[in-house]
Amino acid sequence: MDMKEDGRVRLNVGGQLFETSVFTLTRYRDTVLATMVEERWTSTQQDQEIFIDRDPTNFNRILNFLRDGAEFFIMPKDDKTVEELRKESLFYGITDLVALCDAFLAPFQVGDTVGWRPEAIPLYWRSFVRYMVDDTLTLPFIYDRNNHILAKCIACQEFQDPKSTYLVEINYLDWEPMKHHMEIMTADIVEMMGRCCNVSWDNGQQIHLPCSALRRASPAEER
Could you read off the pLDDT of 111-125 as tens digits, one per residue? Predict the structure, then answer.
């Protein structure tokens, strides 16, 4: 069939139009999209659409994976979207993307690179600032008992006595940019502790956190 790799292909996915190149759609062979183009498209059909009866929500991500490959693809940051992306990847037969989704959804292990879940940042940022400011803490969740400051994990029984009898005064307004920085921070898991883990940030500081506050970093974020 007459095909040019730089030829443009219009796809109507569930009523939403996408336009890409033959090269992108055939970059990964033996996929539904590659087969569809090879069997149903010629260079004389650039103004025609190929209709695909699927939900278009994640199709941009499908195309970005085909364009960028696994090394540079930015994974979504929430499990629900990754699960939906995995389902679409299975339909299109893009096995490398299915494997990437499976790795993202797998339980954490020592050595994994992780980041903050977006929905956790508004809940954790003040505690995280306190941990950053007070280097006696490895647990950022503190409370006062009989005028003595103690720390305890909110998800397990881990407990710390920082040997401190005072609270470091923090002006949280000055630290609000931390919320933005937390969106791009990554850390390595150095110890698994049931539902929690100890992670080491780029500056060498370690902190104990519930796994539910963290997400697996994509390969592009680990670069």
Answer: 999 999 999 999 989
